[in-house]
Design goal:
The two termini are about 20 Å apart. Strands 2-3-1-4-5 form a five-stranded parallel sheet, with helices on both faces. Helices cover about 50% and strands about 10% of the residues. The chain has ten helices and five strands. The structure holds 2'-deoxyguanosine-5'-triphosphate. The site of 2'-deoxyguanosine-5'-triphosphate (DGT) has 18 residues, from helix 1, helix 3, helix 4 and helix 5. 2'-deoxyguanosine-5'-triphosphate (DGT) binds next to helix 1, helix 3, helix 4 and helix 5.
Length: about 220
């Protein structure tokens, strides 16, 4: 396939700790799939600044800066050219805007003027840049299950994440991708039960592998 053809673009969505990285790692073994992991490491070192750390330490001060940077790194992934047939991305511009920005707005951590600015950027990008996607894989979880996983993996910036934050993010993902009542859903949604342990989740993934890879069989 030449560089200009558009790949079948799949985005993996789900709460923090739902198993997105595990799913992406599984697909990295396929030669015709380009896997784009979420650039958490980039967010931890923006010219020496740990934006993720700043966000969790003082969300009201840093959330606009953080979301602006997330939007840039996601735009980079959406527009990245590839010769692979399938592009598999961890999260997207859409979950940045419809889940995280929305949650910051609803919880009043983000100022209304800041919400308007980031929303205008999002609107401009989606109206003027080809950021279309073909499939959303939604890893569906219970908040308590992922909260336990988050505490267990002990990423230093996340050590004080309260269950209530995970519940809010869960509800916002559900309204968007399961109930489909809050925001536009930009592609068909394939739901996977990600409450089970991650090895078991991968077994379910193998059953729908052809659908994720847009293969006929
Ligand atoms: P996984 O593999 O399902 O366990 O995925 P995680 O938890 O490694 O990745 P993710 O995207 O759920 O979250 C990574 C960290 O970055 C987590 O502390 C939440 C934060 N994060 C990710 N995207 C955004 C965003 O757009 N806004 C905000 N405020 N935080 C975000």
């Amino acid at each position: 396939m030449d560089k200009q053809s558009k790949p079948f673009t799949v985005v993996v969505e789900g709460n923090i700790g739902s198993g997105k990285t595990t799913l992406l790692n599984y697909f990295s073994k396929f030669s015709d799939v380009e896997v784009l992991q979420e650039p958490v490491e980039k967010w931890r070192d923006v010219q020496g600044h740990n934006l993720l750390g700043l966000l969790y330490d003082n969300p009201a001060r840093w959330c606009l800066t953080f979301q602006t940077h997330v939007q840039l790194t996601m735009l980079d992934h959406h527009t990245k050219e590839t010769s692979a047939k399938v592009k598999l991305m961890e999260r997207s511009l859409y979950s940045g805007r419809y889940c995280f920005v929305e949650n910051l707005h609803q919880s009043k951590l983000m100022e209304p003027a800041e919400y308007s600015v980031i929303s205008e950027w999002f609107k401009w990008i989606t109206n003027n840049v080809d950021v279309g996607i073909d499939l959303i894989v939604y890893l569906r979880t219970d908040p308590k299950v992922v909260h336990d996983r988050i505490l267990q993996r002990a990423r230093k910036e996340e050590k004080t994440v309260p269950l209530s934050y995970i519940v809010d993010l869960h509800e916002i993902h559900e309204k968007w991708l399961h109930d489909k009542i809050s925001h536009p859903v930009p592609a068909p949604v394939l739901e996977i039960d990600a409450n089970v342990d991650l090895a078991e989740m991968l077994e379910q993934v193998t059953l729908v592998e052809n659908q994720i890879l847009n293969r006929k069989r």
